[in-house]
Amino acid sequence: MIDNRGYGRVIKHISANEFEQKLEYKFKDKNLLKKALTHTSFFSQKEKGEINHFQRLEFLGDSVLNLVVSKYLYNKFPFSSEGELSKLKSVAISQSFLAKLAKQIKLDKYIVIGKGVDLKKGRGEFSILADCLEACLGAVFLDGGIDNCEKIIHHMLNKENIELITKSQIGDFKTYLQELSQRTFHCLPSYQTIKETGLEHQKTFYMQVYIGTQLYGIGSGKNKKEAEQNAAYYALKKLKIL
User: Which CATH number fits domain 7-170: 3.10.20.310, 3.30.390.50, 1.20.1250.20, 1.10.1520.10?
Assistant: First the structure.
């Protein structure tokens, strides 16, 4: 991140297309990008207009993020209830998760900040990264519309990131599959032992899980409980919950 010891150099730096390549969006209005990347801490209180502009972009980006993430989760998890979708969304738009996404696109290299702002102390860093990511989304929305915002957010919510979100909320895969099966298929999943291998004190168990008459997952583990958890995990993946 850059402090305010050289604003002219900073503006020139931000004008480069390096960050646009990481964001995978090319701005028509470069000033929108500059304003989105210039945190409020950079400006003095005499420059309230510039502070206000950043905060307005952040406000707009927050609304865009909420809409796009809600729509994404609604389509991604057709079997999840409103409560489950709300839990997933709360993680996806959390400050810490947004900071993680920001770091993945190296946003911290391009943010312009004020002197004395400590960027290496947990919440402060998370807050600045999350705020600037939202401001960037607000800038993209004004510059290129909601479709381009969707492309950026969908790309950020890649397979690894969305799996982190779902795992953080589900935890016990067997219980989750049971609740989902009752709600969606009106029956309980059933588990069957396929085989056991290894020595008596070092066995590996293989289990399969059915919902109705259809096989949904196979898992292994050092005991039946672990194997059932893993079978439930793969069943949830087949159901596109993970």
Answer: 1.10.1520.10
Residues 62, 84, 143, 228: which is the catalytic one?
62
pLDDT at 15 over 50: no
Catalytic entry in 58, 84, 134, 228: 134
pLDDT digits (tens, 9 = 90+) for 34-70: 899 888 777 664 566 666 678 899 999 999 999 999 9
Give CA–CA dist 169/151, Å, rounded.
Answer: 25
Question: Would you say domain 173-238 falls under CATH 3.30.160.20?
Answer: yes
The residue type of 155 is H
Active site residue 163: no
Instruction: Say how many C-beta atoms besides its own lie within 10 A of residue 24's C-beta.
Output: 12
Active site residue 62: yes
- Average pLDDT of the chain, as a whole number: 85
